[in-house]
Write a structure and sequence with these properties.
membrane, Alpha-Beta Plaits, 147 residues, transmembrane helix, alpha+beta, xenobiotic transmembrane transporter activity, 16% strand
Length: 147
């Protein structure tokens, strides 16, 4: 069998090849320079690590930024052996505690669903002008009485 004939490259192939050659020359040039200046490269590495640590500490963590929308969502999950009736009583007590907070405008909740030992509540806070605390502060105020 005869060896494959080398096909002539098209314009796009030549353009890509020139791009790869340019990148390879640039890489070789910067690698050579880096190997000639190891102390500077080490200093840049240490500075980069330090900057990353600093940014990790000061940048807020979380997928979404915290915003006070005036709405809270809460859930409760009791032991699996808790009956629907017992859960309903416990959930009603929780809703009264939440409603008693002066920053809360209204509370709506439900128990049951897929599990009889769970419940969810949706809390609407008063407008920001009517309350003196943020949504996060309301959550902190409710943690103690609800635990």
């Amino acid at each position: 069998s005869e060896p494959h004939e080398k096909k002539q490259e098209g314009r796009f192939g030549r353009w890509l090849e020139r791009g790869f050659d340019w990148m390879q020359r640039g890489y070789a040039r910067t690698l050579g320079w880096s190997l000639l200046h190891p102390r500077l490269i080490l200093a840049v590495l240490i500075a980069t690590i330090g900057l990353n640590v600093y940014l990790y500490i000061i940048v807020p963590k979380g997928f979404f930024p915290q915003q006070d929308t005036g709405r809270l969502v809460g859930g409760i999950q009791a032991d699996q052996s808790t009956s629907f009736q017992a859960m309903k009583v416990k959930f009603s007590e929780m809703m009264k505690i939440v409603q008693a907070n002066p920053a809360v405008d209204s509370v709506v909740g439900f128990t049951g669903g897929r599990q009889t030992n769970s419940g969810f509540m949706f809390v609407s806070l008063k407008s920001k002008s009517e309350r003196k605390v943020s949504a996060d502060q309301v959550i902190q105020q409710l943690r103690g009485p609800l635990s």
